[in-house]
Automatic annotation (TrEMBL), chain A:
Residues 200-301, 369-404 are annotated as: Disordered. Keywords: Membrane, Transmembrane, Transmembrane helix. It comes from the Eukaryota. Residues 547-689 form the VPS9 domain. This is Alsin. It comes from Anaeramoeba flamelloides. Gene3D superfamilies: VPS9 domain (1.20.1050.80). SMART domains: VPS9. Residues 264-277, 392-403 have a biased composition (Basic and acidic residues). SUPFAM superfamilies: VPS9 domain (SSF109993).
Automatic annotation (TrEMBL), chain B:
Gene3D superfamilies: P-loop containing nucleotide triphosphate hydrolases (3.40.50.300). Keywords: Nucleotide-binding. The keyword Transmembrane does not apply. The keyword Nucleotide-binding applies. SMART domains: RAB (SM00175), RAN (SM00176), RAS (SM00173), RHO (SM00174). The lineage of its organism: Eukaryota, Metamonada, Anaeramoebidae, Anaeramoeba. This is Ras-related protein rab-21. InterPro entries: P-loop_NTPase (IPR027417), Small_GTP-bd (IPR005225), Small_GTPase (IPR001806).
């Protein structure tokens, strides 16, 4: 399932990047702009359309489910032809969701609606990383870009975990189909659990066999065991110790419900039954864990050998991966995803994935208790809850209701202060992306993957969004306040900019005509600065590129000069050149390259004409009057004597883009003389060639 | 009134620059000693209490630069075509000059045909009738002028200014007509293109 994504750089150059569908879907939830190399802000993947939100515009493309695999070709062709449908953000008026349809309203053209299907991308989220790591990043490590992206997207996970994931393509396809076909997520979760349990049994049996062989060969000192056991009992553990333990625990298969300190109190009935069945196994596991801690060096090596077998299953991988991330973020022991949901999950953890590491375990426990209270606040809780996990979170509500009486109430304001920043972040994520149904753990993963460092630039942009936009339901519009503020700013700007004009008005109170004239002059100058010059600069860019095409003509002038410059050939009057060398004019003509505006270029030409006349006047030569005949010949001499790059381009550029009113005057006269000189050279050169 | 561009045309050594200088600086030099100014100057002319500024361009007359002269003609409202009374060829070549000018500017231009060196009556080769016939043919006005004595020069420029004024005023109002003409031209083009397309389609089928 290949898809091509086109991203635009910060410099505006478009670039084609081949990603797997997985990456595509991943980008949907993320904004990679702060990373600096991609400006693709988000991509929405509906049942019939692909929507790419770049920093400048919205791009969308149709496809059918049957031809989904051929989509990348379609996109490719369209992009090459330039028939891609593109809209700039300035044209977009509003983005909203109506009856599961995403609607984009434009200021001028008619609105466009897209059918919105959230199941598709959520289901495929798991297959993302496998594709990505196996086929793109692992195989093509030499590509620097790929490495950069890998580092940016997947900083938390070491590469070795993904090396041998999904070795066969057939299995991969099957699994993708499996996820796609599932409509009810409850069923999906149940199946996942069943598969997990079956897999765990298999792995445990394997372990037992291996450990029996390993215990015979290994000897451990008793002193070390005692020391480390004491350490485990200490409540306030350091961060490093925690991490080490978590890593080791993670590398083992994750047992459901065992080993968690805070989670033993609150458990479902179903879970209790399962645990009763597996009590003996859990005890064995605890022993193994202790064993692992005791023999760090040796056991790590043994575990790495069995990694290939362990991570073949998608669900196990996902569970493991989730645990790794959450444990890293919160500096806690987390053994499985289900356990985390039941015991350790709090709103603050959810909203604040980057909670401080300095907190002791007691404090954390207290915080959890306090935060559990906040769940009773249904409004907030419902806001934070999202599609897939509503079921899981419903269980929490049941538990919390039983606990209400025993725990103190947490004041809403205090709570809000703490989480305000992250609340903003979460909500903006949802509204920015135009989604209602987002899995909270998905966000968590993405946050940790992409913005694992506390990147404030993202927060700032999101906060700005909240300042400028008002959100009502699923729609968001620009705030009225923002517009009013803008008006105020405008007024201030006008006062600042036109301060000098107000002064003039005051100065010439009694001579309004004079004041009017002066002000008009100032305004005209400003208008030219504001409106005309930037457009000229654009034109210059175009013409600079065009000048490359006119290289032949420029070269012709140069060659002709080198080979055939003689007074006889050019028929320059002898008196004018034998005594005068026009040094000033020749030096001055070189300034054309430095000047960009056509008006300035034209003024340089006129200045050259003046310099010529001055020089002739100073010598008091006895010559017939300075005709155009004489001027053209002198200009010829000057042009040919000074090697100016792209001189033909400078002449034609000024001729075409100077105001025609100038061409009637003195400056125009000299320009025409120079042009005739240039054309004369070109004609002669072409005849000789 | 805005500036109006006037171009001086004619064969080499006819006396364009001397007419130019006589009118603008009231100077004439038999052996041309150090009179150096750019061959472009402006002068205001009064016509019935209205003022017109004429920006006069002296063009190159020598043959080697003649092919490049069309660059000078752009945006010009009037042209003074100068011939030498003592040289028949100069009058004959005027038709070629005219053709060049009309290629660039079109038929909308004020024309003056001026015979210079009228003080050399003994050496006259060109008859006045021939010159006037040509002027009628072209739709121009004929003047006999001498740059040396300054005969008829001011009158000639005064008459030119009058005609330019008229010409500008006439062409101001029919701005809408030009638009309509443009539209008409576009329509014609469309019709032609459609016809061509039809023909092509027929050919294909």
């Amino acid at each position: 399932m290949l898809i091509t994504i086109y991203s635009t750089n910060l410099h505006g150059t478009s670039k084609k990047i081949d990603y797997k569908m997985a990456v595509f879907l991943k980008l949907f939830f993320t904004s990679l702009e702060p990373l600096g190399f991609i400006v693709l802000q988000r991509a929405i993947f509906t049942t019939k359309h692909i929507l790419l939100f770049t920093s400048n515009s919205i791009i969308f493309e149709k496809y059918t489910e049957k031809n989904f695999e051929l989509l990348h070709r379609q996109v490719d062709n369209n992009f090459q032809k330039g028939s891609f449908q593109q809209y700039s953000y300035s044209d977009v008026c509003q983005i909203l969701i109506d009856n599961n349809k995403l609607v984009i309203k434009f200021q001028k053209s008619q609105p466009i609606s897209f059918e919105h299907d959230s199941k598709l991308y959520i289901a495929n989220e798991l297959s993302i990383r496998c594709d990505l790591f196996n086929k793109r990043f692992v195989n093509n490590e030499s590509n620097k870009e790929n490495m950069l992206i890998r580092k940016a997207i997947f900083p938390a996970i070491p590469k070795k975990h993904f090396g041998s994931f999904f070795e066969n393509e057939k299995e991969e396809k099957k699994k993708i189909l499996f996820f796609n076909n599932k409509t009810n997520k409850e069923e999906l979760f149940q199946e996942l659990k069943e598969e997990l349990e079956s897999y765990q049994k298999k792995t445990r049996n394997k372990k037992k066999e291996k450990e029996s062989s390993f215990e015979n060969g290994s000897e451990i000192s008793e002193e070390e065991e005692e020391e480390e056991e004491d350490e485990e009992k200490v409540e306030n553990k350091t961060i490093l110790q925690n991490r080490k333990e978590i890593k080791l625990l993670d590398k083992n298969n994750l047992s459901s419900g065992s080993g968690s300190e805070s989670g033993n109190e609150t458990k479902d009935k179903n879970k209790n039954e399962k645990e009763n069945q597996n009590d003996e196994e859990n005890e064995n596991e605890k022993e193994k864990e202790n064993h692992n801690v005791n023999k760090k060096g040796r056991k790590n090596i043994n575990i790495s050998k069995t990694e290939k077998d362990k991570f073949k299953d998608v669900h196990d991988f996902f569970n493991r991966y989730f645990v790794l991330l959450t444990s890293k973020c919160q500096n806690k022991k987390i053994h499985s995803f289900d356990e985390y949901l039941k015991n350790d999950f709090t709103i603050e953890n959810y909203l604040n994935p980057f909670c401080d590491t300095s907190e002791t375990s007691e404090e954390i426990q207290n915080m959890n208790l306090e935060n559990n209270n906040t769940r009773s606040n249904n409004t907030l809780h419902n806001l934070s809850l999202t599609g897939n996990n509503k079921k899981n979170n419903a269980d929490h509500n049941h538990k919390d209701n039983n606990k209400k009486s025993s725990v103190q109430k947490y004041s809403f304001d205090e709570y809000k202060k703490k989480i305000s920043k992250f609340e903003f972040f979460n909500c903006s994520f949802r509204y920015n992306l135009c989604i209602n149904n987002l899995d909270f753990f998905q966000i968590k993963i993405i946050l940790n993957e992409i913005i694992f460092q506390k990147d404030q630039s993202i927060f700032n942009t999101i906060i700005e969004f909240y300042k400028n936009f008002s959100i009502e339901g699923n729609n968001y519009e620009r705030k009225k306040q923002f517009i009013l503020n803008n008006k105020k700013k405008l007024l201030e700007r006008i006062i600042n900019n036109h301060f000098s004009e107000f002064l003039i008005l005051l100065k010439y109170k009694y001579n309004k005509n004079k004041a009017r004239r002066i002000i008009l002059k100032i305004i005209n100058d400003r208008l030219i600065e504001l409106l005309v010059i930037p457009q000229y600069t654009k034109l210059i860019k175009i013409f600079d590129s065009k000048s490359k095409f006119e290289k032949e003509k420029n070269n012709m002038i140069k060659e002709y000069f080198k080979n055939n410059i003689t007074q006889e050939n050019v028929k320059i009057p002898v008196k004018l050149i034998s005594k005068l060398k026009y040094k000033n004019a020749r030096n001055y003509i070189k300034k054309i390259c430095n000047v960009s505006l056509p008006i300035k270029k034209l003024k340089i030409f006129s200045k050259i004409g003046d310099l010529i006349t001055q020089e002739v006047e100073n010598q008091n030569l006895k010559i017939s009057s300075l005709n155009t005949d004489a001027y053209i010949s002198i200009f010829l001499y000057i042009i040919l004597k000074t090697d100016i790059p792209n001189f033909y381009f400078h002449c034609t550029y000024t001729e075409n883009f100077v105001d025609s009113a100038y061409l009637k005057e003195k400056e125009g006269f000299f320009l025409v003389n120079i042009l005739t000189a240039v054309n004369y050279i070109l004609n002669h050169a072409s005849i000789e060639n | 009134m805005k500036k109006q561009k006037v171009v001086l045309l004619g064969k080499g050594r006819v006396g364009k620059t001397s007419i130019f200088k006589r009118f603008l600086q009231n100077e004439f030099h038999d052996n041309e000693v150090t009179t150096i100014q750019p061959q472009y100057l402006e002068k205001q002319v009064k016509v019935n209490t209205e003022k017109v500024t004429l920006s006069i361009w002296d063009t190159a007359g020598q043959e080697r630069f003649r092919g490049l002269n069309p660059l000078f003609y752009r945006n010009s409202k009037a042209a003074i075509m100068v011939y030498d009374i003592t040289d028949q060829e100069s009058l004959d070549s005027l038709e070629d000059w005219l053709a060049e000018l009309k290629n660039q500017v079109g038929h909308k231009i004020v024309l003056m045909i001026v015979g210079n060196k009228s003080d050399l009556k003994k050496k006259r080769q060109v008859s006045i009738e021939d010159a006037e016939n040509l002027a009628k043919k072209v739709g121009a006005q004929h003047f006999c002028v001498s740059a040396k004595t300054g005969e008829n020069i001011d009158e000639m420029f005064h008459e030119l200014a009058k005609r330019v004024m008229k010409f500008v005023k006439e062409n101001k109002t029919p701005l809408n007509t030009t638009k309509s003409r443009r539209n008409f031209a576009l329509v014609n083009e469309d019709v032609e293109t459609k016809k061509k397309k039809k023909k092509n389609n027929d050919g294909c089928c």
